[in-house]
Fold this protein.
Amino acid sequence: MSETKFTPGPWEVTKQVYGDGWDVCHHDADGDRLVVVELDRAYEADARLIAAAPDLYAALKALEERGHTQATWSLALRALAKATVAPAQGPPHPEATEEM
């Protein structure tokens, strides 16, 4: 399998430094904050879903590499869903309810 070409995770959702939207960010090895995606204020849920993409990819890749029988497939999918859905939904940021 070829090496991935996307920015590695983890990604996080933060309020934009300049503006009133959301940034999906990654911190590089030097600790620098790199913005992966910028979204308008109304798209916090989309930002959270995008930020969960590296974790979802890793979970699917692990599932693919391990392989499963018909008997264990259902349990594996439930574990995958549990590991990825909650972080994608996440609690709303306090900034989302502030008057801007």
